[in-house]
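pinned: reference chain
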Amino acid sequence: MVAAGTILLIEDEEEIADLLKMYFEKEGFRLVHALTGEGGLERFAARDARVVLLDIGLPGMDGIEVCRRIRSASDVPVIMLTARDGEVDTVVGLEIGADDYVTKPFSPRELVARVKAVLRRSEERPVRAHVKTVGEFTIDSGRREVTMPDGTTARPTAREFDLLWHLIEHRGLALSRPQILEAVWGYDYFGESRTVDVHIRQLRKKLAGIPIETVWGIGYRIDG
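pinned: its structure tokens
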């Protein structure tokens, strides 16, 4: 029995897969490996994975398309694995709903820590529903949705909603990117503040007019 559950790794480099298998099994996880995007989707449909580790540069169907298809069907946490020169692809991956990304070469220990943090945050959902208002927006933590000023409903991704809710709970305070990463993503700051910036940009796009302010030199604040 594998107490910690299943991790699905979609990665075309066998050496990386073998290394990660060793590290994750030490932590009580089962690691299921697919070499291609198509194979990864088949395994995703057949197994109840707790986290998907997804390489962007896959042969055939790339990681961006795989992420898009997974996200259309599930809120399972997705962590992208990307080369250092893949900045554009990384940003696109986050925009379509990936929860996090790690650049190659990476420390297996750091990746295990990221997975544990993502799981911890994704499973710490509020038991009681709360409804808060920000200006003309109504945010419902139970339904995890936002009612827009025109009465329509928006459903941010799980990570976007967690970020929005954290800003609202600290309304009026300027929060730094490291503070947001630790609180919302659940790990210490590794210098990858782009993760926060992309999610803020997506919130502003989906919730046009939401009063999230950029505090230059610090981070972000929500008022209203």
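why pinned: Residues 143 and 192 are 30 Å apart (CA to CA). The longest strand covers residues 49-55.
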